[in-house]
Amino acid sequence: MKKNIILLLLATFVIFPAYSQLKSPAASPKSKIYQEVGLVEIRIDYSRPSKKGREIFGDLVPLNKIWRTGANSPTTIFFSEDVKINNKLVKAGEYHIYSVPSESKLDLVVYEKTDAWGSLPSFDESLIKARLKSDFIKLNNNVETFTISISNISNNGASLNIMWDNKLAVYYIDVMTRKKMLDTITETISNNPSLSDYRKAAIYYFEENIDINKAVKWIDIAFKDSDDLKYWQLRYKALIYEKAGRLDKAINYAKTGYEKAKLNNAVDGINSLENIYNRLKNN
Question: Alpha-carbon dihedral of residues 231, 234, 235, 236, nearest 10 degrees?
Fold first, then answer.
């Protein structure tokens, strides 16, 4: 029995080193982006190499050849609904994005997701979903680590930015929100809407400059005038009435909202409503 225990312990010490591994920093760390734009979810999964004193475009990244747009596995991009990128339709789904750099531009290729690892020797034309062009913008500073970002976000779209070294390429993503929202609002308002539906419809029309008179009508239904209105509700009414040119009521809503925000010690409300009230009062 004692002999068996000793043998088991020896086996443990012999086997254990085979399972130990040295953990070290990744040369090109993984990064994930999750961003909501309008009604669309966008996810990007990519690896981020760094410059480390090397020449990038034309050396580490050859010109006029397919690049995986990052390092390791090809970069993936996911859209929860159909979008347009640089006015080209891309259906909902997950894709690889490859690119082909030249001296002056970066051609981005949205490609059906495959099992391929790294860059491709050539494209299968049947797997290309969209070809997108962007002239390089020369940056005043060097970007050390390869970076993809989503910026300039609005209800209707955003910019997809690809940056490395002293170069930036920008592509515009149109999430086609306006038509979807107008259709949805029309259907919802005509079919027993809730007060929350009226509020959302009013705010969307206000933000997108669509028929401000309807926005006034709907916000008045959502937030009926009473002493019970919260400061943030009064803020929306002030802004919508201001855009409609009904300044006397807008001033009254802003002033009342400001006073209520102070009573509640709501710092954000105090700051925003004070700014609105002062702006309206001085016009």
Answer: 130
